[in-house]
Amino acid sequence: MLRRSAVTAGFALALALMATPAIAQTGPGGETAAPTAFAQAQTQAAAAAQPSPALIEGMKRDLGITAEQATTRLINEAAAAKVGPAIREQLAAGFAGAWVTGPTSTFVVATSDSTKITSILRAGAEARLVKHSLATLDAAVAKLDAAVADAPKSVPSWYVDLQSNSVVVLAADPAAAEAFVGASGADRSLIRVETSAEQPRPFYDVRGGDAYYIGSGSRCSVGFSVTRGTQGGFATAGHCGNAGSTTRGSNQVAQGTFQASSFPGNDYAWVAVNANWTPTGVVNGYSNGIVQVGGSADAAVGSSVCRAGSTTGWHCGAIQARNASVTYPEGTITGLIRTSVCAEPGDSGGSLVSGSQAQGVTSGGSGNCTSGGTTYFQPINEILQAYGLTLVTGGTTPPPTGGCTGYQNTYTGSLTSNQSTYATSSTGYSAASGVHRVCLDGPTGTDFDIYLQKLSGSTWTNVASGTSAGADEAFTYTGTAGTYRVRVHAYSGSGSFRLGLTRP
C-alpha cells in the first residue's frame, strides 16, 4: 500500500469535519487550491442529508457506531457514490476498485498503474497501489462462472475481494475448490480459497418488506415499487414465482400477476399490480418507521446498508462485495451483492437500501439474526434494465411539460451552485391530510433538486424528494396534517427556477 503523509492527514481531517463546507486550501506558495471533487461531494451530501431515524437507529444497533458516525458514514458514502464513476473512467484500465472503510467510511480507490496515484489523490480519495486491475479480477470470476456446471456443492460462492485484490472462493471442502478452480482455467494466482460453513438457500414461503402471497399460499415480499409505461408494479426475487403466477397482497386482496421471472442464473422478477394497488416510493422499516426511496445509485463496497423483512424486521450491515456468485441447491446465481446483513426465512425478496438509495432485493444467504449471517441481494439496477422498468422514488412521477403550470401555487427564484432556498418560506405552510403535488422547472443543463419537509417538534424532516441528475423534478406525496415546506437545492449549476405546488 502506498504510504502517504501530509496528503493523508489532510484527507483524514476533511473526514473528521464531514459536514462542514468544502474549504479552499492554501498551498506552500500562498496560492489557494480548489476543494477536491470528493470534498465538494461531501459538502453537497451534507447539505442534502436528513437521514431518517430508522436508518440511524438500525446502523447504531447493528454496526456498533454512534449516531454521529452513522450520519458521517451516510455523507461520505453518498459522496463516494457521486465521484466514484468519474474516477473509474479517469483510471480506465488501471482501475482496481473503490470502497469505503472504517467507522466513518473513508473513501479508498485502488489502481494497478502507479502513474494514476496522483489522479486519485487530487480527487480527494485515499490511494492504494495494487498488483491486479479490477478487469483482471472480473475476468477470473467470469472463468469460474463459465464453469458453474462443474462447481461442487461444497463451493457455495466466489467473488472479487477488492481490499485483498484477489478473488475469494468459499468452500466447505478446500480440495474440491482447488479442483474446480483448476478445471475452470482461471488464473490460480488471483484466487484465494477460504474455508466456509455457508450453506446459502433462497428464502421460500416468506415475507419481507410488505408481504404478498403467490398462488395457493406461498409468501414472499415486495422489493421496490416500479413502473413500466403506465403500468405499476414491483420488483422482487425470481425464485418467488413464475411468469403468469398470480399474487395477493398482505391483506389477501387480489394484487397482480408475475410478468417475468428469472431463476437460477439470476434471481429477479417483476409483478404488475391491478388498479386496487398504488406503487409508492417507500420501504416499510417496521418499528423504525417508513423509509423514503430517493434513487438507485450503487453504493461502494464497504457502505452501510439496511434490509427490511417481516420475519426479522429491520437489520443493517455492510456491502462486502459486488458481482458475487453463489450456488443454491437449485443452481448458481451470478452478479449478486454480498453483505453482512442478517436474514432468515421470511425475508426473501425484501428491500435493501443504502441511505435513501435502493440497492437490491433479498435473494438468499446463510446464518440468522441471532448469531449473524451473510445475505446476498440481486442488484435493483439490473432488474430495472432487464425489464425496462422505472424505479418509483418517494411517489415520484415524471416532470410535466409546460414549466410546472396548472398548480395551485407558483414560486420563482434563482440559485447559484450548491445554494439552497425555501420556495414556500422557511417557516412552512399548514396542510390538511392528503396529497401534496410538487414540480420544479430548473435551468437547462443544471442539476436542481427539491425536498418536501415536515415539521416534527422543532425538527424538519425530509418526507419526499426529487433528486434525479436533471434540472426538472416532480413528485406526489400523501401525508398527514401538519406543517410543511419545500426546499430547492442547486446540486450543480446556477440559474432561475419555477416551482409549482398544490397542497391539501
TrEMBL record:
It holds the Pfam family Pro_Al_protease. Residues 132-187 form the Peptidase S1A alpha-lytic prodomain domain. Its EC number is 3.4.21.-. Residues 1-24 form the signal peptide. One of its GO terms (molecular function) is hydrolase activity. Keywords: Disulfide bond, Hydrolase, Protease, Serine protease, Signal, Zymogen. InterPro entries: Alpha-lytic_protease_prodomain, Pept_S1_alpha_lytic, Pept_S1A_streptogrisin, Peptidase_S1_PA, Peptidase_S1_PA_chymotrypsin, Streptogrisin_prodomain. Belongs to the peptidase S1 family. This is Streptogrisin C.
